[in-house]
Structure prediction request, 185 residues.
Amino acid sequence: MEPALKTVYKQKVASSLKEKFAYDNVHRIPTIEKVVLNVGFGKAEDRKAAAEAVIEDLGKITGQRAVPTKARNAISNFKLRIGDTIGARVTLRGARMWEFLDRFINVAAPTIRDFRGLSPKSFDGRGNYTCGISDHTIFPEIELDKVTRTIGFDMTIVTTANTDAEGRELLTLLGIPFRKPGSAA
Prediction:
C-alpha cells in the first residue's frame, strides 16, 4: 500500500506545481528525493553512553537504524580523538521517507510547544530545506518515562527542485507548516 502523503503528492501537488510553474515535462516537476536526520552529541564524559541511546531513539522515530558518525580530526580541547563517535545520521528514502514526513507534519509538529510554524527562510538556494528539531520527544514513538536525555537533531529535506520558490511551493502544498510572514519567531 502506498503512503498517504505520496498519494496526496501524486493526486494534488504534482498537478498544482505543473500548472503554477508551467512545466512542459512531467519529469521536471519537483519531488522529494530524501530526508536526512543528523544529530551530534555533546560532552566528552558521556559521549559513549549517549551514542547508543541516541541511535536507538533515532531508530524508533524513523523505523531505520541510525549510522554513527566518527570524528575525522582530533581536537584536544574537546578531548576528541580520531575515530570517536560524535553523532549519528539516518537517510530516509522511498516509503519510509513519505511515512516519516506524514508523521512529522500531522502528528509531531502540532505537539511542539509554542509552535507558530517552521521558518520559511531555511532553504539553501537549490530548493532543499533544513530545520532544527530541539526535542525528539514530540514523536509518539518515544516513551517519555524512558527518556534519559532529550536530543535535538537537524532535518534536511532534499528535493529535486531547482529554485527555492519551487521547493517552498512543493513543501507548502505537502503541508509543511511554515510560519506566516509577519509573525514573530
Notes: The chain has a mean pLDDT of 84. Residues 4-174 form a domain with the 50s Ribosomal Protein L5; Chain: A, fold (CATH 3.30.1440.10). The helical segments are 4-21, 47-62, 94-108, 164-174. The longest strand covers residues 32-40.
